[in-house]
Amino acid sequence: MLRVGVLAVQGDVREHINSLTSLNVAVQKVRNPEELKTINALVIPGGESTTISMLTKRVGLMDPLRKFVKDGFAVYGSCAGMIMLADEILDGRNDQETIGGLEITVRRNAFGRQVDSFETDLAVKDFDKSFRAIFIRAPWVERVGESVEVLAAVTTENGSQHPVMVRQGSVLATAFHPELTNDNRVHEYFVQMAKSVSAAN
Amino acid sequence: MANQNNSTGTPRVKQGMAEMLKGGVIMDVIDADQARIAEDAGAVAVMALERVPADIRKDGGVARMSDPDMIDEIIAAVSIPVMAKARIGHITEAQVLQSIGVDYIDESEVLTPADESHHIDKWQFTVPFVCGATNLGEALRRINEGAAMIRSKGEAGTGNVVEAVRHMRTIRGDIARLKGMDKEELFTAAKELQAPYDLVAQVAQLGKLPVVLFTAGGIATPADAALMMQLGADGVFVGSGIFKSGDPAQRAKAIVDATTNFDDPAVIARVSRGLGEAMVGINIDTLPASERFAGRGW
């Protein structure tokens, strides 16, 4: 049976729990390696990525989470969660560690400061209608590896395109925050993904 | 952004920013070095100001918005969000802070109020605002003016947590009382709280404020921070408590760890060891009314 954990060291944990609960899946917080053992899918919430990175390390979850991703469990990260899953970060702290596992390079705060934060109608692959996506001091993806599928991208003023929703195997990431809306389609997508992954395991 | 569907400064974008700070510690800093210490400790944001509240108390005089140069230096020094304070009702200070690119404005009673009857119309700004409150009515009046985040006021610069506790308990108690009220009772509650009915009804339905609720004012130790989290705060502002103590770097880290692990006494005990001197506190009873910040704001 699917049991989804939400990494709960800092950030908008409650919003992800609410989104998942409304999809009738079992949800719990993950704050230490013990709690990681009882789940088979994980969400890394939005928050401050430098803080989440440090605290993940301090509570002893960094290496267990790397193994969790490597073992092929389904993992989804939004915003700071996307940064935590990226193999490479630009504009981060020099010592900022990530869990990794997603073959992408992300740029932190790529859209600018909070006054540049925005919401927009985003076309997402396989969604019949656009998704109202909320970007808060959000990152974007600058480079994707060969096996990474781009599910949504935004076009900036100078015409350059940047992926903001990507998937590689069992790992999903968005630069925006579906958990801040009542639209559950991204979480639904993740739950379906997690179910097929756990069936395959 | 080229897309005309893009909107900045919407309530969801402003309130959402505060959601991202939850479970975190926001630290007062007066220069780039302190900002780096705060970031290294795991702060989710820093508050740039010229003098910490303890020094504002000591020095007296009019406390104003910080020098834009100093805020720029702090913005350049760290990658986490940078907040700054404007005086209550000082529309222009807020406009200046928005133009510099601060990520959040604190319309703060710690600075000397510029207007003794009006707060800033915060709906006019793209940048989000946090405001202090001592009770639910005050919190809802600020939200009605456009505040996207609330913090309990406490009594800043005292190192004494008693007022933060009082304000957090009052806000949470006021919310608890609304639950289970019928519509007639909610109309009366709105009148008594001096707050708009729609917001009062929303709080009754949600069982919490419609925005994030942090705590502030007098938090000096890891145990203080954890206490406020146990009382229902979504996160913690620490002002003078860190950089007026013996070992700021270690204390900052300890307060972050205590905030994350607020329900685990063993962790709080561990991080509370060997921190050196805490800031010297002030007993609030000995403060004359004119020197209390929490009474500022209307």
TrEMBL record, chain B:
Q: Which Gene3D superfamilies match?
A: Aldolase class I
Q: Per the record, a Pfam family?
A: SOR_SNZ
NCBIfam families recorded for this chain?
A: PRK04180.1 (NF003215), pyridoxal 5'-phosphate synthase lyase subunit PdxS (TIGR00343)
**Single GO molecular-function term?**
pyridoxal 5'-phosphate synthase (glutamine hydrolysing) activity
**CDD domains linked:** pdxS
What protein is this chain from?
pyridoxal 5'-phosphate synthase (glutamine hydrolyzing)
**BP GO annotations:** amino acid metabolic process; pyridoxal phosphate biosynthetic process; pyridoxine biosynthetic process
Family membership, please give it. Answer: Belongs to the PdxS/SNZ family.
User: What EC numbers are recorded for this enzyme?
Assistant: 4.3.3.6
PdxS/SNZ N-terminal domain location, by residue? 12-216
**Which pathway, metabolic or otherwise, does it act in?**
Cofactor biosynthesis; pyridoxal 5'-phosphate biosynthesis
Species for this entry: freshwater metagenome
EC primary class: lyase
Annotated keywords: Lyase, Pyridoxal phosphate, Schiff base
Catalysis: reaction(s): aldehydo-D-ribose 5-phosphate + D-glyceraldehyde 3-phosphate + L-glutamine = pyridoxal 5'-phosphate + L-glutamate + phosphate + 3 H2O + H(+)
